[in-house]
Prior knowledge:
The chain has one domain (12-80). Helix 2 packs antiparallel against helix 3. The protein is extended, with a radius of gyration of 20 Å. The relative contact order is 0.08. The chain has helices at residues 12-28, 40-54, 63-80. By secondary structure, the chain is mainly α.
Amino acid sequence: xxxxxxxxxxxxxxxxxxxxxxxxxxxxxxxxxxxxxxxxxxxxxxxxxxxxxxxxxxxxxxxxxxxxxxxxxxxxxxxxxxxxxxxx
Length: 88
């Protein structure tokens, strides 16, 4: 007699959502987590400093420069957090 798989009662969409969440968590997991009391503004500022050190190595034009700006903006958004009204 076969026993059902452990997730046999889980709807496929819930399983898919859990898998997506797991992949996302693994992708964004830092190599070295910050202290529990770390200020997100300071962490983002350090990230922006690191990006500023890369800027001189890139040509002013091109996709790499644009991607650097996108990364910097995302660090700012992460530090700032969601807006109270839910929009920017």
